[in-house]
Design brief:
two-stranded antiparallel ribbon, 221 residues, alpha/beta, 5-stranded parallel beta sheet, elongated
Length: 221
């Protein structure tokens, strides 16, 4: 074995090749890669591979397998509904969640549904990297775009096709939240140890989100 290509991990850290011999004994697990390459796992902080299948656990496992085949070992699942969270927790409890997954609870949904407005208050937020499943925070949709129309400062053109007008592409579009609501959510989630992530596409939504974040920062203890 070419020692210059060996990797020895002790206490979560790589040990230099020259120091390896002192650690190898009968209990050491030695893996011969036979010329293959080792690289750190890829972190995808925003992906729906598993989430879109939830609460179908077999579909979630298929999504997980596909991500692992691409080298993605840690992922962030945004806007997770209660039923989807329960499916993630079920897989974790059975030891079938191989990835490390950070989920962000759905605040108002991409169509501005408000059924789960207070769901996050009962959750214990954490970003502990040693957990397979962590409820890291909350996802807020600031405007349309995934559903309905992005919120823009100028009016949409009168010449916009009717089928788009029917979806909200008229006047200023669909602004779901204002700066004050962003401030309130960020402040409460931050106090609970969570992270707030915000979907905002149109310039009006971006402006409201940035103002809300600025106000939350200014009022933070």
């Amino acid at each position: 074995v070419d020692r210059l290509k060996d990797i020895f991990i002790s206490g979560g850290k790589n040990v230099a090749p020259a120091e390896m011999e002192a650690f190898i004994n009968d209990d050491t697990k030695v893996i011969d890669l036979q010329g293959r390459t080792v690289m750190p796992g890829i972190i995808d902080p925003h992906t729906h591979y598993m989430q879109v299948a939830a609460p179908d656990e077999s579909g979630m496992l298929a999504g997980q397998a596909e991500m692992l085949s691409l080298g993605i070992t840690t992922s962030g699942a945004p806007s997770v509904r209660t039923d989807q969270l329960e499916a993630f927790q079920s897989l974790d409890a059975r030891g079938e969640l191989v990835q490390r997954v950070h989920v962000y609870l759905d605040y108002n949904g991409f169509c501005n549904e408000r059924e789960q407005l207070e769901a996050f208050e009962a959750e214990q937020f954490t970003q502990d990297p040693d957990l397979r499943l962590a409820i890291a925070g909350v996802k807020m949709f600031g405007d349309g775009g995934a559903c309905n129309a992005p919120a823009i400062a100028a009016d949409y053109l009168d010449s916009t096709p009717q089928n788009l007008k029917d979806r909200g592409f008229h006047n200023h579009g669909d602004l779901y939240i204002d700066a004050a609501e962003v401030t309130n959510l960020v402040t409460s989630v931050d106090a609970a140890g969570g992270i707030t992530v915000i979907h905002a596409i149109g310039d009006l939504a971006l402006s409201e989100a940035l103002q809300g974040l600025s106000d939350a920062y200014d009022t933070a203890p």
